[in-house]
Amino acid sequence: MTAGAASGFRALLQELQRAYGPRHWWPAETPFEVMVGAVLTQNTAWQNVERAIDNLKRRGTLAPETLLALPQSELAELIRPSGYFNVKARRLRHLCSFLVDAGGETALRQRPTEELREALLDVHGIGPETADDILLYAFGRPVFVVDAYTRRLFRRLGRIAGNEGYEQLRRLVEQEIGADAAALNELHALIVHHAKAHCRVRPECAGCPLGGSCPGAGEGQPG
Fold first, then answer.
1. 186 in the same domain as 121
2. Domain residue limits at 178
3. Residue 156 belongs to what H/E stretch?
4. Each residue's pLDDT tens digit, 122-136
5. Alpha-carbon span 42 to 115, nearest angstrom
6. 188-214: string of b/e by CB count within 10 Å (b at 16+)?
7. Which of 138, 157, 186 is the last residue of a domain?
8. pTM for the whole structure
9. Is 183 part of a structural domain of the chain?
């Protein structure tokens, strides 16, 4: 980890907010839709997730009980646009079974954050990033989501060495931002937006709002 890596995340949030404005992410009508999206977005673009969720909505199955009532093959076909549809169909069914067995969203909201996180991580197919997506965006818990965009940006800005583990990097951000779910939500959403606009694998440095604080600005080298 580089010197000063534990500071500057709020400043980064403010810089990105000035550049892009509020993101209002995650785009969903219900917490369950967020959960479904968190599973479907694994290894695919968001546009593909939207197509799969639209299929579920048209079929009237965007609820745990109705989704579980679908035959496995039919569910897989509905979410085909998201890719790896057979695997994701199984993961969705495991998540829905967990929700139903736990007493639904209302019961889960009563659980402390760390207890709920552990329970989510015990669900087959739910890893740390997906669990934190669900905690932050569906349940409004103050956790930070670490993804490839985050690692790429933080490394290029010199905030991390690049070999930090998921939990280490998550807590690094949470310790500075604090128990502020709205700020953690915006920071993650803005990082994703910025990474797609400028901090790509091959960066687009021209016009980057972080160019003044990025050691590699203007190099245009792949990450």
1. no
2. 9-22+149-213
3. helix 148-156
4. 999 999 999 999 999
5. 23
6. bbbbbbbbeebbeeebebeebebeeeb
7. 138
8. 0.92
9. yes
